[in-house]
Each structure stands twice: as structure tokens, then as C-alpha cells.
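cron nightly-structures :: item 1 of 1
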Amino acid sequence: MFDSTIVDTAKQKVLTYCDKYRNPNLDIFNISEMYTTSKETGRSWEGTDFSYRHGCYLIYSASGDLLYVGKASLTTSTIGKRLWTHLRKLRSSWVPIPAFVQIVEVCQPFEAASLEEFLIQELHPKFNALGNTRSE
């Protein structure tokens, strides 16, 4: 069963980041619904408007554990390209396996890097090196 607590926490962290680190006159970031990592298992992120944008992506297990936070911050890269590369390489090597994706679209490509670092520090995803600084 999917535990949506971390998803709600992630959304709140994005809003906190926007409130704390961005000019209040700027638009807030656009946060997607949850998508599956594969077309065979439900509503996939592939082909969505989000997949052609810049921003961050959060990869979750089937139970809702946050596995990874990544970014697409270069003008030549998109969230879809980065996700496709990660999921193709990681699907078989991660335990638990990636099952869901949430996408945060940023207003300017350069904003993705700082949001990614903030989310890693705040949420401690299992497979981000920076996120494994918490004491267990």
C-alpha cells in the first residue's frame, strides 16, 4: 500500500523552498500528480507536458518510500530525458524498485539545481549520496 505521507511532505518542502528562497513576486513551481514509472502499470509520466520541461523529479517505491531526487537543469535536457535514462538503468538494480514519479516544474532551468539540493537535504532519499547524511 502506497504511503502518501512523504508525497505530502515533498509538496510542502517545495512550497517552503519557494517561500523562503524565491522572490514572492515569482510564480510558484508546478507540482505534478503521481505518475507510474511504466506505461504498463498505470498512468505514466512518459509523454506528459511535464516530461518536456525543466525541474526536479522524485522517484518513489511502490510503498511510497522516496528513493531518489534528480534534476533537469540544462537547456538541452528535459525531465523526460533524465527520467528515461535513470529508470532504464536503475529499474533492475534498486531495491525497492522505482514505481512512481512526481515532477516539479521550475520557472527557469537554473532553478532546478538549488531545488534538487534543498529537497535532498530535507527529505533524505535513499539513493542520493547527499541524502544519506542522516543518522539512523
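cron nightly-structures :: done
The chain is about 30% helix and 20% strand.
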